[in-house]
Write a structure and sequence with these properties.
Helices cover about 0% and strands about 55% of the residues. It has about 120 residues and is an all-beta fold. The chain has a single domain, classed as Jelly Rolls (Sandwich), CATH 2.60.120.10.
Length: about 120
């Protein structure tokens, strides 16, 4: 069993041309013996965004706090604390912070996906 505060994990920072203002942490992964899934926590700064991308694996997202938008099929859909997002494999997507506070979300991916 593992019980931690996610902020105890050192973040990987993403702030390049495609990703802006993101801190990502692998909170449960292969190093913990998790053979089926990886749980990551992302913090997106105000005006920050993930890159627009797609990949073969699905993932599930739970919005913990903040306000953001999720891109899918040419549309942006608002999300707030408590929103749940399912992204099937192969679907182009992007997440951006649409508020003035950190957008914090948990993201689950299968073990075949890169942890970060």
């Amino acid at each position: 069993m593992k019980i931690i505060q996610y902020t105890d994990i050192m973040p990987v920072l993403f702030d390049s041309g495609l990703a802006k203002g993101i801190a990502g942490r692998v909170v449960i992964g292969k190093n913990d013996g998790a053979n089926n899934f990886c749980m990551r926590i992302f913090e997106v700064s105000p005006a920050g965004n993930s890159p627009r991308h797609s990949h073969d694996w699905e993932h599930e997202i739970f919005i913990h706090s903040g306000a953001g938008e999720v891109y899918n099929n040419g549309n942006w859909t608002p999300v707030t604390a408590g929103s749940v997002v399912f992204i099937p494999g192969g679907e182009e997507h992007q997440i951006r912070n649409a508020g003035k506070e950190l957008l914090v979300f948990a993201c689950l991916v299968p073990s075949k996906a890169p942890e970060l």
